[in-house]
From TrEMBL:
Name under which the protein is recorded: Type VII secretion-associated serine protease mycosin
Segments passing through the bilayer: 360-382
Range of residues in the leader sequence: 1-28
Active site positions, chain numbering: 62, 100, 258
Top-level taxonomy: Bacteria, Bacillati, Actinomycetota, Actinomycetes, Micromonosporales
Originating organism: Micromonospora ureilytica
A GO BP entry: proteolysis
PROSITE patterns, sorted: SUBTILASE, SUBTILASE_ASP
Top-level taxon in the UniProt lineage: Bacteria
Length: 476
């Protein structure tokens, strides 16, 4: 703590830019790897003994990625220049203030190699960079929907969306997400930053909506509570690569659900690599069933199913499911989740296995004949008794007959009336392309590493005020 205080006291802040310069590190703990506290919290070194994400492609829909950053050399997928129609080059980060897309890519696939180079959650996976058209990597919801479809068709196994709009799930994004899910893609999105509700596309059914946790495992103060929250991942004081145009030593520290989303996308890539035969539904099921419960017991609006546990997701036995557990009615808070194959939420007290199938069929036919015979006998006896005791035809004294043959009793034949408040089915709310962006609370900035010999070093960056663009902001 003393070393940290001394280092911070020497920091010179660039007011308004959110970028912080720092002196030389006091020890190895102040290197890039030394500041990656979340790597150790998630036991990623042990997870890398099982898999590093080889064979998996993660699409990062963001501001673009600086392909020249040393931490990302050779880590990008797709043909250079390939992009959705109307989109800019994905291998250039358009966010000149924070380098948001570069940071997200580095968190997922940073190649590592030494203590001053970012180690990603899935360093042997590849990132497919897709740049949004706004001047700083912002966009409108129709563009995001188009990019989800393009990433799906381009072969993405996971789509990471550290972006969002404070609005209900838009029909275009809903349809794009459904398209991706049918193509076996896992989608991960940020809940927001200090807003009132979970943002779109994180609030779209089937998407893993991610909240952020602190170093101590608590919920970060800027996370957004809501019934759509699925999982939580580390998001406080996360060091990540940035273009040298943002910070000359190539690294910055920031906090947000954006960072948590990228980290969880990396864990999803590890699972897809470890279990290549699992479909998207079962990858999601594995992530939520192995999560560490946090907050109130069971699924809750803050942590969802819990905090992601990378090692458990790679090792623990998890029964398979037939469908996406996030699309089942049981995925709502307070309700049971989809029952997995081979398991029942409630089963019979005794199970009987039959080997002689022919014998059991004959026995079943005989039993059925006995039951039918008994029923016929009971009907015949009842009719004979009614004939002997049938009352005279006509009304009882002092009482008039109501209706007669062919007339329904009172109340029949009236159309059903819906309860108050119900109306004709309506469509989805209209898309909003001018959603307000959420500010991110300033975060404390730990020291950063200096440039290593011949390569990028470290820098710092707390959360910044929101940027105004064409629509949904990055989630800080």
């Amino acid at each position: 703590m003393l070393r940290f205080a001394v280092a911070v006291s020497m920091i010179g802040a660039v007011v308004g830019s959110g970028v912080v310069g720092v002196p030389a590190p006091a020890s190895a703990a102040d290197t890039v790897r030394g500041l990656q506290w979340y790597i150790d919290a998630l036991q990623i070194p042990r997870a890398h003994e099982i898999t590093k994400g080889r064979g998996v492609t993660i699409a990062v829909i963001d501001s673009g990625v600086d392909a020249t950053h040393p931490a990302l050399a050779g880590q990008l997928a797709g043909r250079p220049g390939a992009a959705p129609a109307g989109s800019p080059q994905g291998r250039i980060d358009r966010d000149t203030k924070e380098g948001h897309g570069t940071s997200m890519a580095g968190l997922i696939v940073g190649r590592g190699g030494d203590r001053n180079r970012q180690l990603g959650i899935a360093p042997e996976a590849k990132v497919l960079p897709i740049a949004l058209s706004g001047s700083e990597g912002n966009a409108y919801d129709g563009e995001v929907a188009r990019d989800i479809r393009w990433a799906t068709d381009a072969g993405a196994d996971v789509i990471s969306l550290s972006i969002g709009f404070e609005q209900p799930a838009n029909v275009r994004i809903v349809e794009a997400v459904q398209y991706a899910l049918t193509k076996n893609v896992v989608l991960v999105a940020a809940t927001g930053a200090g807003g009132r509700t979970v943002n779109s596309p994180a609030n779209t059914p089937g998407v893993i909506a991610v909240n952020a946790t602190t170093r101590s495992g608590g919920l970060a103060r800027y996370s957004v509570a809501g019934p759509e929250v699925v999982l939580a991942a580390p998001g406080d004081d996360i060091i990540a690569p940035v273009p040298t145009a943002v910070q000359d030593n190539g690294y910055a520290v920031a906090s947000g659900t954006s960072q948590a989303t990228a980290i969880l996308a990396g864990v999803a890539a590890l699972v897809r690599s470890r279990y290549p035969d699992l479909d998207a539904a079962n990858v999601i099921n594995r992530l939520i069933r192995t999560a560490r419960d946090a907050g109130v017991p069971g699924r809750d609006p803050e942590f969802g199913f819990g905090a992601v546990d990378a090692l458990a997701a790679l090792q623990r036995p998890v029964p398979a499911v037939d469908g996406n557990p996030l699309l089942a009615a049981g995925a709502l808070p307070g309700e049971a989740t989809t029952a997995p194959k081979g398991e029942q939420t409630e089963g019979p007290a005794v199970a009987i296995k039959v080997k002689n199938k022919t014998g059991i069929v004959v026995a079943g036919v005989l039993c059925l004949a006995v039951v039918i015979g008994a029923a016929v006998l009971a009907v015949v006896v009842a009719r004979r008794r009614r004939r002997r005791t049938a009352p005279p035809v006509g009304p009882e004294p002092g009482r008039a007959l109501v209706g007669g043959p062919g007339f329904p009793p009172p109340g029949y034949g009236h159309p059903a009336v819906p309860p108050p408040g119900y109306g004709p089915p309506g469509g989805s709310p209209p898309p909003r392309s001018d959603s307000a962006q959420h500010p991110h609370p300033p975060q404390p900035s730990p020291p950063f590493p200096p440039p290593a010999s011949g390569q990028a070093g470290g820098s710092g960056q707390p959360g910044t005020a929101p940027r105004q663009g064409l629509g949904g902001p990055h989630q800080r």
